[in-house]
Amino acid sequence: MALQPSRLTLYNRLYSICSARVRIAAHLKNIPLVIRECSGDLFKDQSYLSMNPSGTVPTLVADYGNGESITMTQSLSMLDFLEESYSGVMRLIPPVTDMAARSKARDLAALIACDVQPLQSNRATQEFLRLQGREKKVQMAQRHIINGIRVYETMINGSAGRYSIGDELSIADVCLVPMVQAAYRFGLMFDKTAPSQDDAAYPNVLRIVKECESMPAFRESRVMKQVVFPPFVANSFTRIGARVGHDSVTDRPKVRQENSDEKFDKVSL
Fold first, then answer.
1. Could you tell me the pLDDT band of residue 255, with boundaries at 50, 70 and 90?
2. H helices then E strands: how many in the chain?
3. N or C, which end of the chain has less CB nearby within 10 Å?
4. Model confidence at 199: pLDDT above 70
5. Residue 178: enclosing H or E segment and its boundaries?
6. 101 within 8 A of 155, measured Cβ to Cβ
């Protein structure tokens, strides 16, 4: 099997923080992806469940052109795969010669991917919505995001430079930025109607996010660049995300999709 696949297909979902991590890493490494935007009905379909039994996104399929393929269903394993398959381009995991930085980068990525994000995921919050109502759902998501970002800020004290680990980008930053964008969605940190969330409480996190979002890989990979939002969603992002330099709501290209008749090539809100 060749080291690099001939084709990479990412099954993607609107608002998916996990999918965003993979898009960012691929963009940083200049790896072409075929993006398949998935509708909600897909996750109950046997054709998708045969690839990803959990019925979630992302799913990454690496085809090698000789009939062999690899299917991955967890974003951190996808980041490892991209790093190892394209090791000569834009390293995102520090080298084995710096085990302290290497371990720290993985620690920070796991903090976001394993401790924080699952608690505000659509699956978790929809269940909480069913049991407790919309207001409690939002409060739960806010609480877990705030706690996670506070821990992240504490963990990078002493290691942060231009980015989370010194002056080199890493998988920590790739995981952090989509998580902070989720904070915008729940009205946190940049929303003037939530004055209790003081920007000064997260100086390193916010500086790093701002630095990352000045790069094309982060701008082009975020949710706002993947879809055309209906007015109520677009207005929400303008209100609580504008201070970080996001695009105007009228300047967002449509999701990049491969032409196909398959049912999962749809955007579903």
1. very low
2. 11, 4
3. N
4. no
5. helix 171-185
6. no
